[in-house]
Design a protein that fits this description.
The structure holds 2 protein chains of 2 kinds. Chain A is mainly alpha-helical. Chain A contains 11 helices and 5 strands, in the order ααααααααββββααβα. Chain A has a 3-stranded antiparallel sheet, with no helix packed on it. Chain A has a two-stranded antiparallel ribbon with strand order 2-3. Chain A is elongated, with a radius of gyration of 25 Å. Chain B is built from 10 helices and 13 strands. In chain B, a hairpin with a 2-residue loop joins strand 8 and strand 9. The chains are: A mainly alpha, B alpha/beta.
């Protein structure tokens, strides 16, 4: 069974691994140059590109590895050929899923490791930053392209492709559904699940002029909120101003609304110093800034938790596939 | 010995029943033809017997086991689906390799010789084969697996008359050589007549006739004579069909006893006509009295 599965799977598998080798070579050439630098602004394309590739990989695995594994047999009727050899459906599925999962996890593991290595100088610098200028590796988009979570994404995507293929039995439809579900999961998990995998920490700090990193207003010119510096390398979930009673306020109280000139009403931009000094009036009035965040030190605990989450979802899908294969025809 | 025993077998797809209350027994050591009109449940029955489908109701026992229950059962039963599927990307050689990998009882020399005899190039991808060659390849996999029972679902449906004849000829040789039991379905009686020694006529999932082909032919007679009421026939003559014109009556009867009434002209009936009579007269299994109305 392994021989047949490999024979059917080798072209899609080798195509992906060939692409990974090309990416690996690019990273190996450019990686050493990054060590010791403090400005990576010229690396934006590659930095974004490596992240993109790591998010495309599970999609490719689910759509081009997982789905056809099942639907190609069902569509061409070859399932009735292979299921009538001296091989149970269970063993057929064990081999397919086993080889597929192994290849998916190895591919994602290698790519995740290579990109993590390549980006380590950038990540190290980002971990020291307290403003929003650089993305720390714990922040949503980067997090999924580092460490070990890509392994979980890849395993999940493969199992999903196989499961959807078994339900829909048609390649194109199953590919579309698989792609949509993978995209949805990769949007929902970072935004609605990952922040709560570990209870976030909170920290209330005094508002000091030079710590203010951003001021946000609406179109009428009302100042809605300000942000202050983060703990270095942290993933900030909320950066909000609280009144003396500890309640979040937005828009900010009237006495600071005049700090910023209204467009079309006041002339010229305010000087930076006076703006900061003006906003800093919040402090003496008892206002403080409350930060809700996941500290950068939680990168690995969160990686392991999210990997476990995706492997659990993979196990669930695998269980479903084994239930389903008995009734497939 | 019985290779296939079904009791009240039924299969429901979503809302439609494809097979209901099918009860039959097929003996080992025969080539059994399964005939019936489209939708009679032939494919469904074979699919259930191979373990491809699970029955909704009833029980089935194939070679002493439940279809598809495990490797031992799978080894005993070979099945070639109607579409004679092969892996289009794999060569003939690779198909044989597949068979060797997946079947402990695989007979490699048989498979290789068979491919050689059929004049197929082992390096050729199966996707480039003609319909007949594909069917031959699928059959090769089925035979070289060395099953006790080979199930063939309309194996010749897609073949032209010449390829059909060659395929059946070849099947017969293999059957004779390896002594396996075969159950094959077809809606073309001509094809079955050439190769089958047993026949099952399935109409609306009901077994209308089952038996040895020669015995069936010997016990069915077409009687024609002056018009008369078929109720007056002796009770041991089961009327399968009756046709009346103003002056003449033609009946098909089944009886073991000789026809003694001198008023009848007795004629033998071919297998195809026999099957067609059974298919077109769904009430024939009822007592002769009711047939008349």
């Amino acid at each position: 069974m392994t021989w047949l599965t490999w024979r059917q799977f080798r072209i899609p598998a080798l195509s992906v691994f060939a692409a990974l080798i090309v990416i690996g070579v690019v990273l190996a050439i450019t990686g050493p140059e990054l060590v010791g630098r403090t400005n990576f602004s010229d690396q934006d394309v590659l930095f974004g590109g490596t992240i993109l590739v790591l998010y495309l990989l599970p999609a490719v695995i689910g759509v081009f590895w997982g789905v056809p594994m099942i639907t190609r047999e069902l569509e061409s009727g070859t399932h009735s050929l292979v299921w009538n050899q001296t091989v149970t459906r269970k063993r057929w599925l064990v081999t397919k899923l086993g080889l597929g999962l192994l290849a998916a996890m190895v591919a994602a593991g290698l790519l995740g490791w290579a990109v993590s290595w390549w980006a380590s100088p950038i990540d190290a610098l980002a971990a020291t930053q307290t403003d929003r200028g650089m993305l720390s590796r714990i922040m949503p988009v980067v997090f999924g392209a580092r460490g070990i979570v890509p392994i979980g994404y890849a395993a999940f995507a493969l199992a999903l492709g196989v499961a959807v293929g078994m339900v829909l039995k048609r390649t194109v439809a199953a590919m579309a559904v698989t792609l949509v579900v993978i995209a949805a999961v990769l949007l929902v998990v970072p935004n609605f699940v990952r922040p709560y995998l570990l209870p976030p920490q909170t920290m209330t700090v005094a508002i000091v002029g030079e710590d203010i990193t951003n001021i946000t207003g609406d179109e009428t010119g009302d100042i809605l909120e300000i942000g202050v510096r983060n703990p270095p390398g942290a993933w900030v979930l909320a950066n909000e101003t609280v009144d003396p009673a500890g309640k979040a306020v937005s828009p900010l109280p009237d006495f600071v609304q005049t700090c910023v000139p209204r467009p079309g009403r006041d002339a010229g931009p305010p000087s930076h110093g006076s703006l900061e000094a003006c906003m800093a009036q919040l402090g003496p009035h008892g206002y403080q800034q409350r930060l809700t965040y996941q500290p950068g030190s939680r990168f690995w605990p969160l990686q392991w938790l999210e990997l476990a989450l995706f492997l659990a979802m993979t196990a669930l899908l695998t269980w479903f596939c084994f239930r389903r294969v008995r009734h497939l025809s | 010995m019985t290779v296939l025993r079904a009791q009240g077998l039924g299969k429901k797809y979503k809302r439609k029943w494809a097979l209901t209350g099918c009860t039959l027994e097929i003996e080992a050591g025969h080539v059994t033809g399964l005939v019936g009109p489209n939708g009679a449940g032939k494919s469904t029955l074979l699919n259930i017997a191979s373990g491809m489908l699970e029955p909704t109701t009833g029980t089935i026992e194939v070679c002493g086991g439940t279809p598809g229950s495990g490797p031992e059962q799978l080894a005993k039963v070979g099945y070639v689906a109607q579409s004679t599927p092969v892996y289009t990307g794999l060569t003939i050689e690779e198909h044989l390799r597949l068979g060797a990998h997946l079947n402990p009882r695989w007979d490699d020399s048989l498979a290789t010789k068979r491919v050689e005899r059929l004049g197929l190039d082992p390096k050729q991808p199966a996707g480039k084969l003609s319909g007949g060659q594909r069917a031959q390849l699928a059959l090769t996999l089925g035979i070289a697996k060395r099953p006790e029972l080979l199930l063939l679902d309309e194996p010749v449906a897609a073949l032209d008359p010449l390829a059909r004849r060659e395929f059946l000829q070849d099947l017969m040789e293999s059957v004779a050589e390896h002594g396996l039991s075969v159950v094959m379905s077809s809606h073309l009686v001509n094809d079955l007549e050439r190769v089958c020694d047993h026949l099952v006529v399935l109409v609306a999932s009901e077994v209308r006739v089952i038996g040895d082909v020669d015995e069936l032919l010997a016990s069915h007679h077409r009687l024609s004579g002056p018009r008369r009421d078929v109720e007056t026939l002796p009770s041991d003559q089961h009327v399968i069909s009756a046709k009346h014109t103003d002056r003449q009556t033609t009946v098909l009867v089944r009886t073991e006893a000789p026809i003694l009434d001198p008023a009848w002209t007795v004629a033998q009936i071919g297998l195809e006509d026999l099957v067609l009579e059974y298919m077109s007269n769904p009430a024939a299994a009822r007592p002769a009295l009711e047939v008349l109305r």
